[in-house]
Amino acid sequence: MAKTFAEINAKIKKGEAVVLTAEEVVRMADEQGLKAMAEKVDVVTTATFGPMCSSGAFVNFGHSDPPIKMAKVWLNQVPAYTGIAAVDAYIGATELAEGREDYGGAHVIEELVAGGKIRLKAVAQGTDCYPRKELEGYISKESINEAFLFNPRNAYQNYVAATNSTNRILYTYMGMLLPKFGNVTYSTSGQLSPLLNDPYLRTIGVGTRIFLGGTQGYVAWHGTQHNPGKARGENGVPVGGAGTLSLIGDLKAMTTEYLKAAVFKNYGVSMFVGVGIPIPMLDEDMARFVTVRDREIKTTLLDYGVPGRSRPTLKVVDYEELKSGFVELNGRKVRTAPLSSIFKARRIAVTLKEWIERGEFLLQEPAAPLPADATVKPLDVKELD
Amino acid sequence: MVKERFTFVFSPDTYAKPVTYHLVKDFDLRINILRAEITPGEEGHLLAEIEGEEDNLCRALEFLAAESIEVIPTTKQVTVRQEECVHCGACTAVCFSGAMAMNREEWKMEFRPEKCIVCGLCIEACPLRIISVGFGGGKT
User: Fold this and answer.
1) What are chain B's domains?
2) What ipTM describes this predicted complex?
3) A178: which of A63, A101, A285, B18 is 20 to 30 A away, CA to CA?
4) Which one of A6, A65, A128, A129 is the catalytic residue?
């Protein structure tokens, strides 16, 4: 029954491809058996909508007259990185506006996408070819040249669950963790999550076309901290954070429905990013992978009350437990809560499915695979002399 | 029988009145105090769940109005701009009263104001900053 990308694309073009979401395909496999399902289905759509700090956008402002070689740039008082060409800059999602804790780069990106006016301030040293030293005024996505989202690390393949053993509230990127194991938070869309449906990244690589922020985007590279060597269960699914993706797409075509700034008190700003990835049903192995269920996806529950790099694992839990609303910990029922929106992830999976059914979105076979043997190094700097 | 939650707002002139005594004794109401911030000389707030006959509750509210004690139903104190909610669930991690809870079929956050005890933790937990809570004129 093996199918190729080209054969599936031919069916998509004819409007004959059978496309299901990663949740629907589990139900179909239960009803009709894995083999029958694998023969009928061509593409499975997966999705996630979680806070992803490693996100940001490149922008090119265009040249003023007289021109300026921007040395420092602020967008709505949020510093952007401009150590590249004269009017290019990178606005990072987590960069904070000067003097504020609740407004940052993610808000600037969201306002830009929404079509709002953004206050640009730039200063420069002034050169013979770029004499101007200061510039201040408003820009919008209509007024600037390129604006593309370029996220160094998104779509984490699984992630730890968090709790807190201390006597005080911890304010973390995993949300507010209440004292004395008062709650547990987790942040994946479980059986709907992209990289959990293709655990060895057989079909996802450089150049894979995806849903990103409401439009079509691409996998640019493997993400930072890509760690395919993470311990795996029998089904091949890593237990805890493993593979990651670096993603790219046209910011001007995105929508704020799938790109949202997030504030985590006493931690900072992050950005909810909507990502959807189509998985081609190449063979029965892929059929097994895409029918992964929440109960088969496990992660480690860590104590964020320990401030070190290696936090102790309190327990291994699965997503069926986490999504039930409670996990058992030290003989007690502890309440669980997600940080990644399954509601939005479902919408993305359905939207991507509709794009493919309508023939508007073709699968792109990777130009190169992602590394299968990368590891993550800790930072242990050499002491200064 | 009805059961409702109210915040009573006391002014420096009214804080010394034994209001809960009167509510129990004169109107046969069951009072469960959920939260209180009463500072002599300043404004005070008392959040309580009140249970009793509807008629008695109405008369009790008239009594409080006559005593110049402001009464705010808790359902009017908390606002969630629901149309902006992305249903991430971060608020449900800190909501002990169960006022903010996930519907685990649709994975939507559902807000039930009648369960709220106006603790304010959700304001800090919401990454979109779309929840505001007023405990009297306090936090928003």
Assistant:
1) 2-75 (3.30.70.260), 77-133 (3.30.70.20)
2) 0.94
3) A101
4) A129
